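Contributing: when you submit paired examples, paste them exactly as shown. First protein:
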Amino acid sequence: MTDKKTISALVLVALTAMGSSATRADDWTGFYAGVSVGPQFDQSKFKSTAVGPNDVYGISGNAEQKFNDGNGRVGAFAGWQMAVQPRLLAGVEADISGLVDSEDDQPGLPGVSYNGATPSDYIGEKQNYDASFRGRIGAMVEPNTLVYGTAGGALRNLDIKGYCPGTGVTSWCGVSEGDSQSKTYIGWTAGVGAETKLMDQWAVRLEYRYADYGNKSFTLFSSANQGADQIGGKVNLNTQIITVGIVYHLGGHLGGM
């Protein structure tokens, strides 16, 4: 998977690949807004830290459950940029997006042993909206093409859910239970992209971004059955996105084709 060193190299290439035939950056200055679509690939993992209150039962089964999923992503973005050199731009951008069909359910509960039986329990995640606020710096490489690097803060809302039917050896819980928790992660994101002018103030863009949100703690089944069935764990999360967007530049004329 793409790591931080690869992202840094891509940003460096994007910012140094300026051609002599480039148009002036101030043709692209001002406010802009647009919409984007594309796939998101996420990696997240629930790792059990306690089984039962204060880990009274101990972790006895597979302590981890991975959620690796690909989903469709639809979003909107807006930004502002200014010329800092004849062929260089700097600015800021914000975006917000949601996912299509982002639920992922997996059998069994991490850290619990079923003694060889097929579990009737499951744990699942659902990724909701995400947003970011980033700096952006770009360079003109062709008369109608801008390449850029971008980095900043990001957030994502995530649901973790669990279900136990309470059916004996195939279920961890003593009674039928269902639980769900929602938390918002705050992390960082970085990537590269390119915009090409279509006509007048319209452009299309292609963008890749990586985001790392760190981890948060979750506790499932703490309210029913006097909390005897609770399972605590941490969920880490990172994502990669590739998006195609349409951009309208409010403030500037993008030059001739």
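Second protein:
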Amino acid sequence: MPPSSTSEPAPAPLPRRKPRLPLEPFAATAAIIWGSSYPATQIALRGLSPFAAGFWRTLVGLVFLALVSFGFGASPIHPRRLRLAQWWRLSLLSLLSTAIFLTFLNLSIQQAGPVMAAFLVTTYPVFALLLAPWVVHEPVLPRRTVAALVSIGGAFLLLGGSHSLGGQASAQAVLGGGLGLGASLSFALYLVLTRRWTHAFDLDARTIAFFSPVFSAPVMLPLALLAGHGGLGINRLDSGLAVLWLGILCSGLAYLAMNHSLRRGQASRSSMPLLLAPVVASLLSWLILGVHLSALQWLGAAISLAGMFAANL
């Protein structure tokens, strides 16, 4: 029997939800590039002091970001349109992400090596997770807080495992680890403040990335000149090539990608892909430099990484 003409039409199908990628792609791109920065910095330090390496990386990054911001047909940044409230926020973000972060990072790599520094410095996702409720008022589940604390505990176990090195090497590793945690806290604060200010003060990814070296380079220049070790001179080809890699990709392209990620979504979601950074750093450091950790240090690194993963689920 044919259906009645008065029967109700079939309900319209619900719109399909767009599948969500397991990792935020722009943050994942930044994490992979930043993972390469640890062995690259170790190579740069062969011919430069930590302060000079930081300055040259900042300067190369500034040239690259200037080309991106004002060249290649891009809509230019208009500094004259920036208000005082934007200027001082840009300067603070610059110091946190570049001057303070790079100085502590380079000293950490010099003292503790690229692999140990990578795991300690990249605890900033969990520090960002712990800071997010206070700074950007993002809700954080108690389970994620516990996982973040476990990750930090693993980082301290990694740091404590350096005592197995013995003597001066152990003292250098502990000092380098402490500097690495300082770098981590600086960058975590940068992440959450960027998330808070990017929309409230209309600061887009290119503007934040461009002004990071603008404000930090004048601070890092006198430190590089006073540090000795040849001043600013680059006397090794491999160090020069490493500085170009660090400036163009790590201080240029990666910051653009990360700032765009923070503008797209929550700071906690952008932090999840950063777990890739220490993995990439460990693999490249082993392949290129032959660097490895002790068994106890690897245990601490694994606990720290597992805590970061659980905190960001």
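If you have annotations for the second protein, write them as plain sentences, like these:
The radius of gyration is 22 Å.
The chain has a mean pLDDT of 81.
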